[in-house]
Amino acid sequence: MSVNPLRETPAQGVFLVGLAASPAHQAAAHGLRHQVFCVEQQLFENDRDAIDAFATTIVACTDANEVIGTVRIHEREPHLWFGSRLAVAAGWRRRAGLGAALIRAAVGTAHARGCRRFLAHVQAQNVRLFESLHWRSLETFTLHGAPHCLMQADLAQYPPTLSPDLMIPSAAA
Questions:
Q1: Which residues sit opposite 67 in a β-bridge?
Q2: Measuring CA to CA, which of 46, 81, 87, 93 is 20 to 30 A from 35?
Q3: pTM value?
Q4: Roughly how many angstroms between the first and final C-alpha of the chain, as a whole number?
Q5: How far apart are CA 3 and CA 68, in angstroms?
Q6: How far is 6 from 82, CA to CA, in rounded Å?
């Protein structure tokens, strides 16, 4: 994984955000998703789906190379991209801007790949975070038995990430 490190204060921890470039990172990302969506939230028995076959996986890793966050992006139709399966390890939630860094990396990467519209189905408890990052709600609905919002990113707030291997560090939050 080729990334720009962000050095947070020791109390916040250190993490890197980049594309999941190895089978080990992919497996760890799937393991984290399973923990969050299947074990903790019980939204799925298995959260893997057909999108996994072609989605780009982005991961956040500690300086010890432990995957502590993930999100995937995919192009649904020309220029229309979706982000999904944003997951952060329990010990890292609400710390060091990790969720925001993953969101910026997801949208910036898609933007660099020709995205003109970026959407996500966001769980209701996470809407405020997305709104603080320049997203707007389009509609609310129930998905997998839980309240969600279809939200759209303001691409003007997310410059394209020039290199697909170079993610936006969380200091930009």
A1: 61
A2: 81
A3: 0.86
A4: 22
A5: 15
A6: 26
Find out whether 165 and 3 touch, Cβ atoms under 8 Å: yes
Strand boundaries in 14-156, DSSP class E: 15-19, 56-62, 67-77, 80-88, 117-123, 135-143, 146-153
Tokens found for residue 36: 């969050």
Beta bridge partners, 72, equal 57, 84
Which of left, alpha, beta for 74 (phi over 0: left; psi -120 to 50: alpha)? beta
Q: Kindly report the backbone phi and psi dihedral angles of residue 48, in degrees, each rounded to the nearest multiple of 5, phi listed first.
A: -75, 145
- What contacts 129, CB < 8 A, 6 or more positions away? 99, 100, 103
The token pair at 108 is 């910036």
The pairing of beta strand 146-153 with beta strand 117-123: antiparallel
CATH architecture for segment(s) 5-160: 3-Layer(aba) Sandwich (3.40)
